[in-house]
Protein 1
Amino acid sequence: MIQISVVIPVFNEEESLPELTNWISRVMQEHGFSYEIIFINDGSTDRSWDIIQQISEQNQCIKGLNFTRNYGKSAALDAGFKRAEGEVVITMDADLQDSPDEIPGLFQMVSEGLDVVSGWKKERHDPLSKTIPSKFFNGVTRWISGIELHDFNCGLKAYRKKVVKNISVYGEMHRYIPLLAKWNGFPKIGEKVVQHRARKYGYSKFGLERFLNGFLDLITVSFVHRYKKKPMHFFGSLGSLSFLGGFLITSWLIFQKIYGLSKGENVREIVDQPLFFLALVAIIIGVQLFVTGFIAELMTSSQSKEAEYKIDEEVNFYK
Ligand code: UDP
Ligand code: MG
């Protein structure tokens, strides 16, 4: 039986891998944990995959998956989750910014009954261009999800095995795994302050553009999550509102006409304002488009967003 699976997405991290592997193995041995480390090479263009293959020859606990191209961190985590066999699954970045010394503490918190334990980089060693948007992002995510975490996007997290076997991580959703867990029936979510270090080698792969994509993913999945079982609650309310608006405006126009006629005015002006009708039509078309978009979203969300990645090679899995 494996106690801990460490799942590590890798995109061009050749310099860090040997040091990281030695460090994790040392911690595991010191604490007597049975473990596996699963590296998912996410289409690196450097020697990362060669190095993963080399170190997996020396240690059978080290396993590797090689994607055919770069599919993103979420896909990499998803592939690792599907393969993980440990009772507790711990995710960690490959760049040595997360410390393997946190593993025993995270393992203990999950063993004591939590579904998810999320790291909190309280003293964060990243540039302001990352930390400021991140503060904003965390505030909005707390507000939308009702989950009181400070650092949703921390790469260092621990899960009960059952949790990772019951969620699919896609798009830029790696930032929102605690939400996926909660929505899928695992609400016991805890937090642990963890050490964080500046990037030693290479460069960060996440900029503002991916941040925005993540936000759009959050909005879509929040809506889909909320309305997929009862779409009428959403479409119905929106439709009613639009209908009511149209009804009130029309009633008002008719009233004006009758009132004007009764006073013998020429009322053509009031009723035939072209701008007014254009606005009305625009509103209706807008609502229709919105609704159509969401119907499409609802219909495709369950199928097409899962397991879009392709695995090319693997090492140490069936031994
Ligand atoms: N990563 C990945 N695929 C990508 C981008 C990043 O697997 O397309 C991995 C990367 O190798 C690292 C982790 O995701 O292990 C976090 O990336 P990074 O350190 O660049 O993010 P940051 O710490 O700057 O937010
Ligand atoms: Mg990093």
Note: The radius of gyration is 26 Å.
Protein 2
Amino acid sequence: MTPEEILAADRAHVWHPYTALPSANQPYVVSSAEGVRLRLADGRELVDGMSSWWAAIHGYRHPVLDAAVTDQLGRMSHVMFGGLTHEPAVQLARTLVELAPEGLEHVFLADSGSVSVEVAMKMCLQYQRAIGRPQRRRLATWRGGYHGDTFHPMSVCDPEGGMHHLWGDVLPRQVFAPVPPGGFADPPDEAYVAALVDAVERHADELAAVIVEPVVQGAGGMRFHHPGYLRVLREVTQAHGVLLIFDEIATGFGRTGTMFAAEHAGVAPDVMCVGKALTGGYLTLAATLCTPEIARGISATGVLAHGPTFMGNPLACAVANASLGLLRAGDWAGQVARVGAGLRAGLEPLRGTPGVTDVRVLGAIGVVQLDHEVDLGAATAAAIDRGVWLRPFRDLIYTMPPYVTDDADLARIAAGVAAAVAAG
Ligand code: PLP
């Protein structure tokens, strides 16, 4: 198909994320991707500032990851996971348990981040029921979070300001504390800590679990918060028999400078969700990890009633194993620190630019916040003119490049962000 034919068919039939039909902004046709570059159908090459939404940490067409998929394709691409098991899935579960914070020993392989959050919630409700607390079926969280687009995860996104405000009257009513104040380096605010503890204590008798994104709130606002808040949550949940879920779908596998963001706080959750970079962005796969106590509790009274058709897909597990192998064998921490330094050098000068209210960098994540809603079409086009792919939202222009992005391409991304700020 020609690029024009692709666009015409796209416009006629295809629904893209968070768009109306027809979409206000026409998508760009991408024809291939290699290293940190996306190649558009018109020949333009863009440095990917988004890692395809946090996922492509090693870049595209990585020879080790390509080989893992090809090799697995030669054995089996998919088999059902009910009653069958295979080496790629077992190896992946073992590696995840080795890498994860202490105490998480059982792994449920899901097919997307949202589903892994559904499974986490189901585990917690079912565990509370199993140990004789059926009334504990609500979740608590802080505002400004994002945990996915299926119904139960939507209920713990911010029901007022968030993407799912449309559904406020339909979703299960959960318990919300305010957004954590301050940034990553700002010490915990005492009044906030008291309110957080109070929210959990007041509702403890009806809470199955607290769920949060540790340290970085991603799609809900790209906020960074002090790890001390996680320690507070760990203590108060433990004291009241409430489970703690960390959603590490965006933050997992090194993005914030530690393998998992929980490590900044030195605490372990009872349940953890991972996805996105799990397969290096190659195939759709996510996982929910839990403690033996939860697994035992649930299993004493029945089964965990969840079983996606594509659970434990061998191709996805094989490429996840290869991606985690690359991470473990390489200097991912050094790469993330270098990307962070490049983003800091490139983005800090934007502080003070008219319209810019904040610039923040943590790990390999850079965020520029504006005092107005970004003009998505104009900002994206301006970045593309600089040879950079970005996807701003609301008042945020942000980037989380592949860990393998070199210094010259980091400078190019920063120039793309600056151009988007000026245009958007
Ligand atoms: N949780 C977090 C923290 C996320 O950032 C996302 C996706 O952006 C999700 C859950 C949902 O994952 P998925 O889009 O794979 O369903």
Note: The chain is about 40% helix and 15% strand.
